[in-house]
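The instructor's notes for this session suggest beginning with a concrete chain rather than abstract definitions. Hand out the sequence below and ask the class to guess, before any prediction is shown, which regions might be ordered.
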Amino acid sequence: MFVSAEIITIVISAVGLLLALGGTMFAGFAWCIRRSDSLRTDLVGVETSLGTRIDGVEQRLTARINGVEEKLTARIDGVEEKLTARIDGVEEKLTARIDGVAADVTELKVAVARLEGPQRHLIVAGR
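After discussion, reveal the predicted structure:
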């Protein structure tokens, strides 16, 4: 069997081309893996710093919310005391007025009963 120099050249260049493409693909894949590992390392650092910042913000917000809650509680308690005092005063006044009206109604009932009641007889029946 006789093989020409051109065929040997074509086979050698095809093998070289395949090795070059395979090596390039392997190098590119290795670069992608190395790059993703470095990104992961960067992300861990960013995650740590963000976690620290979020914790700080959470603590400040918790303190601020607690402060506002204390102020609102004190203010609500004050308003509740004032309203209770006003309601008690109004209740006392209404109780006094209702008692007065009840007494007037009782007197009115007696007066109406006297007007509508039986006539008084001038002759009293004897025993």
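Then share the key points. Residues 61 and 67 are 10 Å apart (CA to CA). The chain has one helix and no strands.
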